[in-house]
């Protein structure tokens, strides 16, 4: 089984580790390291994977290095990474950092991949867009697939699309959770107890997402099926229209997209 090393141990690394473990990857074949050690220690305690004490220990015998620290840390990375990453397959989940920047940071690696997973990957229900610097060897493509497929849907895209994927599916769960929080708060405002509101909202959103996935129908078609002339749903939808919901969502996505481009320019 391939040894996978995680440089960084935050939410995204945790989601990926969780997805791998859920799909049968051995604990002993997963390692993590952070400079401070704090988040790596927490991830190790939570999942049972190995916490490496140093970068050389992290990468000794590893097949693949997942770079999962904050994008701004790439410029101040430990110099030991240059030698230790020699010959490794590099997969970065850093927002905004280009393949050219990865190649510059890890010049002796054998291949470079950018990936943009999202946190539902922790339960195997995520989506990951990815692209490679050059055409991958069959063995490396299989290794990337072994990393990403347990997380859910994996789509190979162009590098130009990676930043756009970050603004949609990468950040999308946060948009979804914010809507869930708003709907739950509204339920409480009209009289439901917090736990009842949470259960109502969670099942409503879960069932709606499953219906969308299984029916094959467009979201607008399903919306119209719920909406009766002069009914309660129509009254609510008109308020959304008055509030320019779609324009707000587009502005939200464009803001995330623009920030991704800014991060790419930062060193």
UniProtKB/TrEMBL annotation:
Cellular component per GO, a single term: cytoplasm
Enzyme Commission identifier(s): 1.5.1.2
Record domain Pyrroline-5-carboxylate reductase dimerisation: where: 159-261
Catalytic activity: L-proline + NADP(+) = (S)-1-pyrroline-5-carboxylate + NADPH + 2 H(+); L-proline + NAD(+) = (S)-1-pyrroline-5-carboxylate + NADH + 2 H(+)
Binding residues for NADP(+): 7-12, 68-71
Metabolic or biological pathway: Amino-acid biosynthesis; L-proline biosynthesis; L-proline from L-glutamate 5-semialdehyde: step 1/1
GO biological process, one term: L-proline biosynthetic process
Keyword vocabulary terms for this entry: Amino-acid biosynthesis, Cytoplasm, NADP, Oxidoreductase, Proline biosynthesis
Record domain Pyrroline-5-carboxylate reductase catalytic N-terminal: where: 4-96
Major localization class: cytoplasm
Family, per entry: Belongs to the pyrroline-5-carboxylate reductase family.
Function: Catalyzes the reduction of 1-pyrroline-5-carboxylate (PCA) to L-proline.
Protein name: Pyrroline-5-carboxylate reductase
Lineage: Bacteria, Pseudomonadati, Verrucomicrobiota, Opitutia, Opitutales
